Amino acid sequence: MFTGIIQAVGEIIQTRPIIDHGNNGLSLCISTGELDLSDVKIGDSIAVNGVCLTVTSLIIGKFTVDVSQETLSCTEGLNQTGMRVNLEKALRLSDRLGGHLVSGHVDAIGLVVKFEPVGESYELIIRAPDSILRYLTHKGSITVNGVSLTVNQVEGNEFSINLIPHTLAMTTLRELAPEMRVNLETDMLARYVAKLLSI
């Protein structure tokens, strides 16, 4: 479980195919940036651009994870060497919940429609697939590339977000541009409520 509050920006510095019983996944080596790994052990979870992955080895300033073909097929950016990624260690029960409850399981891939400055902030508009539209609401929560954000407005299949300077400074969202694809995870509470109402 995560909060969507990014702790550091790292970089995928190596990708290596996994040759194991027909598995077409990848092993990733990720530099940690300023992420403190002193309390991380093999088997722990780290969210990488919003995707929950299991640490398979630890090296000074780096860690490795394995990504299945299934995960690669429904996420964006995990197969790209040189990709800068948002990093968050798994939530501890004693931690503050500064964002919202995030599982690290990507629901869909969105398309950036607009990313433009508005005063000191930036307006981000993303086109979402129909499959997640019912979970998007004004002032509701959404995770974009692992970052917990608040939806400002929903119009048709597009939703807008206001990105403050601090969020831009601390995450890779400042590198977005129109036509880029992003990992989206909807608010899990909204999903549970929708499921209960459909019974």
TrEMBL record:
It catalyses: 2 6,7-dimethyl-8-(1-D-ribityl)lumazine + H(+) = 5-amino-6-(D-ribitylamino)uracil + riboflavin. GO terms for biological process: riboflavin biosynthetic process. Residues 1-100, 101-197 form the Lumazine-binding domain. The keyword Repeat applies. Pathway: Cofactor biosynthesis; riboflavin biosynthesis; riboflavin from 2-hydroxy-3-oxobutyl phosphate and 5-amino-6-(D-ribitylamino)uracil: step 2/2. Keywords: Repeat, Riboflavin biosynthesis, Transferase. It is an enzyme of class 2 (transferase). The keyword Cell inner membrane does not apply. Catalyzes the dismutation of two molecules of 6,7-dimethyl-8-ribityllumazine, resulting in the formation of riboflavin and 5-amino-6-(D-ribitylamino)uracil. PANTHER family: RIBOFLAVIN SYNTHASE (PTHR21098:SF12), RIBOFLAVIN SYNTHASE ALPHA CHAIN (PTHR21098). This is Riboflavin synthase. It comes from Nitrosomonas ureae. The lineage of its organism: Bacteria, Pseudomonadati, Pseudomonadota, Betaproteobacteria, Nitrosomonadales.
